[in-house]
């Protein structure tokens, strides 16, 4: 009976795909002031707390990732200015990490495209501050020797859809709505 249950479990895994655990990641973000340019931007990182990539055959078919928003940090500043911006990002001005310590991304589809470098379009549901919206981005997706990887091109999403709004007298006049990101994850 145990052997039959094990065979059924293995066959189910083949039908639905194999889940691989994220072992390495790099998530980089860019936020912009009045004009969307490198001269008027800040950038930084946020850590992946946990995640997985689902592989069926030799193709990535799904996955989910949890971002540890308490680790959001600017990398373009140092000292007092870095501490001030990191505080803004983590408090009620933007991400409210005490109330919403994580964000999630759940892949809903991976479709091939004609780009030679970023060979797929990944679509999924991004949840930040309890608000969920669809996000799509181009990515280089592959599976080699049991290791699955996703490397995105730089993509944008509208922070206002997630209630990431600068709470000040100037409201959002000083901050553009677009947040850019690049994501790289490896799972095995």
Would you give an account of this structure?
The protein contains two helices and nine strands, in the order H-E-E-E-H-E-E-E-E-E-E. The chain is mainly beta and 188 residues long. Strands 1-2-3-4-5-6-7-9 form an eight-stranded antiparallel beta barrel. Strand 2 and strand 3 form a beta hairpin. The longest helix has 15 residues. The N terminus is likely disordered.
How are the SSEs ordered, and which strands pair?
Layout (H helix, E strand, L loop, with lengths): L1 H15 L1 E15 L8 E16 L2 E16 L4 H12 L11 E11 L7 E9 L2 E14 L2 E6 L2 E4 L19 E10 L1
Antiparallel strand pairs: 1-2, 1-9, 2-3, 3-4, 4-5, 5-6, 6-7, 7-9, 8-9
In short:
This protein is mainly β and 188 residues long.
Distance between the termini: 30 Å
Structural class: mainly beta
Approximate strand percentage:
over 45%
Q: How many strand segments?
A: 9
The gross shape turns out to be elongated
Side by side, the strands of the main sheet go 1-2-3-4-5-6-7-9
SS element count, helices: 2
Q: Mean of the pLDDT scores? A: 88
Unreliably modeled segments: 1-14
Helical proportion, percent range: 10-25%
Q: State Rg.
A: 19 Å
Oligomer: single chain
Largest sheet: 8 strands, antiparallel, barrel
Following the backbone from N to C, one meets helices and strands in this order, namely HEEEHEEEEEE
